Amino acid sequence: MPKRSLPPLPEWYPRGAALLRDPTLNKGTAFSDEERDILGLRGLLPPHVATQDEQLGRVLENFHRLETPLSKYIMLESLLDRNEALFFRVVMDHPDTMMPIIYTPTVGLACQEFGHIYRRPRGLFITAADRGRMAQVMRNWPHREAAMIVVTDGERILGLGDLGANGMGIPMGKLSLYTACAGLHPWKCLPVMLDVGTNNEALLVDPLYLGLRQRRMAGAEYDEIIEEFIQATQRVFPGVILQFEDFANHNAFRLLRRYRDRVSCFNDDIQGTAAVAVAGILSALRVTGKTMSGQTFLCLGAGEAATGISDLLVNAMVEDGIDEASARARCWMVDSKGLVVASRGDLAGHKRPYAHVHAPVSDFIGAVKALRPTAIIGVGATPGTFDEDVVREMSRINERPIIFALSNPTSKAECTAQQAYQWSDGRALYASGSPFDAVTLPDGRHFVPRQGNNSYIFPGLGLALVVVGATRVTDTMFLAAARTLARCTTQADLDQGSLFPPLSAVRDVSARIAVDVAAIALRDGLASIEQPADLEQTIRADMYDPRY
């Protein structure tokens, strides 16, 4: 019998088959001989004690045998369900390959098929039927350490619309990225689906749909559910950070306004998208040599993302030395009815700050010709809108046109990387919301476009909020995150057409963002801890390492 050298284990620690069924503790074939004896695993595993590297090799071999992104998504979710540490090791070691599978663009299809590919419960489903007992439901969550909640009501999933309870794939994916990109411990991450019904007719008649089969609640009844949910989160998990995700425009803005000064919360579609877009603009300006305050921005779309981006661009321009009114005058939007102008009487409240005095313009190419923007930013989920005429016009009026096609999944992209580089004769400064392959033009010039994906921003920001116990989340934090991300983009990146650093560097990028955001929380009196002697060391020491 081998000598027992393992530290004493708590009474609750599972043993035998129960341990192998617990993904948070299971190491599979990597349990040592000593562990197999002490933990009642002898005979339950093949005799070879594998290293985690050997296990990783087996996962990759099977992953590459699969042909479709959805089958690869299902495989990785199954791995997460049985061996959490190995899953995160795979994603951390191969982010360029794995992140497009566990998140955009594949997660959109996974959400559409959620009820058809469902394997095992993950996260919390809180429904309209749980009114009056939401705190009780939350206490069923096994990890009292939960410090970050990503919640959706499924009404506006990516560019796909109302997917009801199928939208749970988004909080699951976001929180996987919190761990993979920034090292937030999995036990601190809680995905929540707030199911208030769906207006998606196809789902309501789908026999495999797993959500409430009722129309969406709205108005006062909806607000009461949200209020109880918010109160319950703070009662069960005091100080927990809330990330609102994929709420429809009519709820997203007002919920952020209502709760941002009451609890520590943010909306990633509004603020996270803004930060990554501003970071990309800052990188592009290093190429053009122009100032932020000298730009004119035109957003295709006038919802959460466009408003958040415009607001943060205004903040950046004010820091660059111009007044707020002048900065707002440099940000324009085009919605489904054309250019957003002051004379329109049907404008939602979030559009009005960017409704300037101008003659009506009915289409996007007309707006480009009239306003002569230096940058166009697509966030309206209207694929193909940055067509050849638009890109060529942008290239005519700008030596280096900035073209951001940020809508995702890939099917919603305003233009592809190939199109942007080809139609601009290689002069476009391009970023996208979904990944595109490198592009080589006929003359041999080679470009490596990179995703302007929120995964560069929210994981590091969230890590900072959790480590310092932030009591509020401010726009200043998002602008700081954007500037830090832009600084992480090297000259070598810019030389090959990349406006963002490689995903392989995302863990270090997230740590650097976390340090800068945490410093702001500490400076502004929004932290629950005292200033540590070495903030960076404190941040990095808290980052989860999935190696056994």
Helical region count? 24
Distance between the termini: 23 Å
CATH topology of one domain: Rossmann fold
Name the overall outline.
globular
Text of the CATH class of one domain: Alpha Beta
**Structural class by helix and strand composition:** alpha/beta
Strand line-up of the largest beta sheet: 8-7-6-9-10-11
The count of DSSP E runs of length 2 or more, i.e. the number of strands, is 13
Level-2 CATH architecture of one domain: 3-Layer(aba) Sandwich
Tell me the layout of helices and strands.
Layout: H1 17-20, H2 33-38, H3 52-65, H4 69-82, H5 84-93, H6 95-102, H7 106-112, H8 114-117, E1 124-127, H9 134-138, E2 148-152, H10 169-182, E3 189-195, H11 201-204, H12 219-236, E4 241-244, H13 249-259, E5 265-267, H14 268-288, E6 297-300, H15 304-319, H16 324-328, E7 331-335, E8 338-339, H17 364-371, E9 375-378, H18 388-397, E10 402-405, H19 417-423, E11 429-432, E12 439-440, E13 446-447, H20 458-468, H21 475-488, H22 491-495, H23 506-523, H24 535-541
Parallel strand pairs: 1-3, 2-3, 2-4, 4-5, 6-7, 6-9, 9-10, 10-11
Antiparallel strand pairs: 7-8, 12-13
